[in-house]
Amino acid sequence: MNKPLILVVEDDPSVRNLIVTTLKANEYNFVTAESGEEGASQAATHNPDIILLDLGLPDIDGVEVIKQVRGWAITPIIVISARSDDSDKIDALDAGADDYLTKPFSVEELLARIRATQRRLAYMNSASSSSVFENGGLKIDYAAGCVYLDGEELHLTSIEYKLLCLLAQNVGKVLTHKFITANVWGSSWDNDIASLRVFMATLRKKLESADSERQYIQTHIGVGYRMVRL
Amino acid sequence: MNKPLILVVEDDPSVRNLIVTTLKANEYNFVTAESGEEGASQAATHNPDIILLDLGLPDIDGVEVIKQVRGWAITPIIVISARSDDSDKIDALDAGADDYLTKPFSVEELLARIRATQRRLAYMNSASSSSVFENGGLKIDYAAGCVYLDGEELHLTSIEYKLLCLLAQNVGKVLTHKFITANVWGSSWDNDIASLRVFMATLRKKLESADSERQYIQTHIGVGYRMVRL
DNA sequence: GCAAATCTTTATAAAATCTTAACGTCGCCG
DNA sequence: CGGCGACGTTAAGATTTTATAAAGATTTGC
């Protein structure tokens, strides 16, 4: 997945700065808004993955922003507010907020809650569109745990599958013997390189049986193997 | 949707009572557990919609319970804990918790957070919930709890039925032994894999007796089983 | 409490997979 | 040219995993 885009709606420049700095340091993309109106419009134009929303905005009330956004999107909204009354929390949550953090808050906690939200998002996406890898006629459906070659299902043993995934997840990169054996078997037992060669042979046979033109796996003598991007 | 089932894992009887009374007053169904072990096994057997989890349990640490449950389920977990340190919150959230409430908490806020969680669940379910499943000559009527094969009703025992539903709800996906046993039986007791094999054999016999051509269930050696989409 | 149905356990043969070792090829270098 | 090292290929044996039957244990219905 790409870096998530986070919309920060906060009028206080110092708080906004704190949040933005934190996000930047953790490699999130972000856009900011300084008022409720601007927040709602930014949400519409940028379609962010997550919204961080302050309730005490200069123009419209934060709860109104939540309702407005919820009118057409289910983007997760994490409220960050100075109001710590129960009634404020309840109003915001019932309006459609997903989480509520009271100021002063710990940036670490904010990040953890963002991660939790992200996790849920990732699951929801994977349910509808399972993550697949494609390269030439090769297709790996990670969620289903199946591999297809030119549409035909390919039967792989569990080690072969792990090996192929490892290569696929590093397409174009040369992987050393040590790296591969360490990842497929537990520890890097030296003698496994012989096994690795055998598995590479069977994998190649399976991948290149249909069409001998294409070569998915390349060997780099003295170093390791590499899947080429077709 | 039916009333959601909520699992309450809390050792302190007074707190447990407060929560349960609140849930009851708001027409939720619930089950309770007084320890981490019990909580994990209740989660497996009852498959609740939401889990409320205290971290300070008498046996295993709450974070361990989270990890255990997350091994096979994505059930939303709301942590309710006396520990208010940031690090505790972060650990719990990163282990897989969805929300974190510190004691003493307001029951109204708890209810609001449950509602927020429910809202998300409802959205996720609405995407993929129909009352009947069809695949090839196989038909499962979830509402009626009946299974048909080429129009003929098929008599299945309750475990066989659970197993078939699990496979059906994940058509095309390879399900690990651990995942299956955890979902059909309680926790993943190692020896259940032997039982699983026997049930798979009987299920297959029933499904493939009529027409030996079609193979609904595929075994992935060393991994698990998978229902193929026909 | 009995009989039938269901579930669990155990045993064994068959199948699939993994490891190991042997042998052949290729390119390199003295 | 011949030895050396790295790799590919093959096949046999060891190991693991699975299907299936059948017996014992448990639950359910009556």
Fold and architecture overview:
2 copies of one chain form a homodimer. By secondary structure, chain A is of the alpha/beta class. The first copy, chain A, has helices at 13-25, 36-46, 62-70, 86-95, 107-128, 158-168, 177-184, 192-208, and strands at 5-9, 29-33, 50-54, 77-81, 99-102, 132-135, 138-141, 146-149, 152-154, 174-176, 217-220, 224-227. In chain A, strand 1, helix 1 and strand 2 (29-33) form a beta-alpha-beta unit. In chain A, 29% of the residues are buried. The A-B interface holds A 74, 86-87, 89-90, 93-94, 96-100, 106, 108-109, 111-113, 115-116, 119-120, 123-124, 127-128, 141, 143-146, 157-158 and B 74, 86-87, 89-90, 93-94, 96-99, 106, 108-109, 111-113, 115-116, 119-120, 123-124, 127-128, 172-174, 220-223, 226. The first copy, chain A, binds a DNA duplex (30 and 30 nucleotides) through residues 157-159, 191-192, 194-195, 197-201, 204, 219, 221-222.
